[in-house]
Amino acid sequence: MSCVFCRIVAREIPASILYEDDHVVGFRDVNPVAPVHILVVPKVHVPRVDAPEVCELKLGDHIFRAIGDITRREGLQEGGFRVVSNAGKGGGQTVDHLHFHILAGRSLAWPPG
Ligand code: AMP
Question: Based on the structure, what is the number of domains in the chain?
Answer without folding.
Answer: 1
